Amino acid sequence: MLTVAMQHPQWIVMADPPPPLPPPADLGAQPPGWGTPPSGWGAPPPGWGGQPPGWGAPPPGWAGPQPGWNPGFMQSQVGSGRFRSMTVGEWLDATFTLYRRNFVLIASISAVVQIPYALLTLILFEVTGVAGFVNSPLGSLNPQTATRAQEIAQLNSLLGAFAVSAGVLLLAALVVFPLGEAATTRAVSDTYLDRPPTLRAAYRAAWSRLGSLIAMILLLVGVYVAYGVAVLLLVLLFAAIGAPLLGGLIAIVGFGVLALLIASNFPFALAVPAVVLERVSGRRGLQRSWQLVRSRFWANFGRLLLIALIAAIISGVLAAIFELPGAALAPGSTFIFQQIASAIARVFVGPITYIGVTLLYYDARIRKEGFDIEMLASSL
């Protein structure tokens, strides 16, 4: 309807006022039909957080999450399948975390070889009389009143004790410790790669590589002996040309470096993981270890020295806890308590170093060879 008005000489046409606007829509309410999925959609897949109404079955052919798929891979636990380089703190944390989470398995692997070795050592030393020399190295023989026959018998006893001790140490160096370290390395590797570790699989892998490990040890001993002989020859040479002070300095530095190398086993500490996990020869394992550690020489050396120092402190404290009270209660059985304390320390503390070395092996491969990218590509 139009309203017409006369003002002055002009006609003004005015329209009726517009109708009122509708009330605003409720933005909190869902539109009609909202939340209803397309027909055929059922319940959400396992692990889906939301529960929309009417969600049907998954599409045909859906088999659920694939093996090894981890929705929380960005928050993976320390020491298990974390394929990236680690700082010193992360490496130590991963070492002790992996040991704690797999304590029974790791301790069992060590006990399989260490307990029989400790019992054999104790029996041999008691039967051959070596235990008596530990408590009283000179025995009950009086040098002033001893006859020639008594002195010869004492010397033969000392030589026999030395031979038995050397045989036991040789058995430990070539069989007991290599098997224990190799089996622990395999178990730690399986855990790191998210594979189920078992005692049987660990020792099966270790036993299959024992020959290469023995060859590696003999070759490494040859290298250390050659180094020691070279230092000794230099000392004698400088002494012969009239420079004893320089020769003495060379002796201190040279043999000090040799002792440090033997204590930390650097730069060949990663040879056992290489021999066991890459199935290479003993010589190639030594070369492989040097290839992995030389790019970060001092960083890797510091880590190995640190883990060796921590293990030595823990081992010393643990051995003292078991050895000192027993020696105080039974002074004549000091040797027995020493063997028990040493066996306990080797079973529970020795694996710490093996775990750290294995994790350092993977850390070196990630930094130098892109092992993390290789594992990512293999999982696609």
Secondary-structure map with pairings?
Elements: E1 2-7, E2 10-15, H1 88-101, H2 103-128, H3 130-135, H4 148-192, H5 199-208, H6 210-240, H7 244-264, H8 271-277, H9 282-293, H10 297-329, H11 334-348, H12 350-369, H13 371-379
Antiparallel strand pairs: 1-2
Helix pairs in contact: 1-12, 2-4, 2-11, 4-5, 4-6, 4-8, 4-12, 6-7, 6-9, 8-9, 10-11, 10-12
Describe the structure.
Helix 4 crosses helix 8 (271-277), helix 4 (148-192) packs across helix 12 (350-369) and helix 6 (210-240) runs antiparallel to helix 7 (244-264). A hairpin with a 2-residue loop joins strand 1 (2-7) and strand 2. The protein has one domain (88-379). It has 13 helices and two strands; from the N terminus they run E-E-H-H-H-H-H-H-H-H-H-H-H-H-H. It has a two-stranded antiparallel sheet with strand order 1-2. 66% of the residues lie in helices and 3% in strands. The chain has 380 residues and is mainly α.
Keywords for this entry:
13 helices, two-stranded antiparallel sheet, 66% helix, 380 residues, 3% strand, mainly alpha, globular
Number of strands: 2
Overall tally of structural domains: 1
Let me know the average pLDDT: 78
**Structural class given helices, strands, pairing?**
mainly alpha
Enumerate how many helices there are, as a single number: 13
How far is the N terminus from the C terminus? 74 Å
User: Which strand-content bin applies to the residues?
Assistant: under 5%
Order of helices and strands: EEHHHHHHHHHHHHH
Percent helix: 55-70%
Task: Give a quick summary of the entry.
The protein has 380 residues and is mainly α.
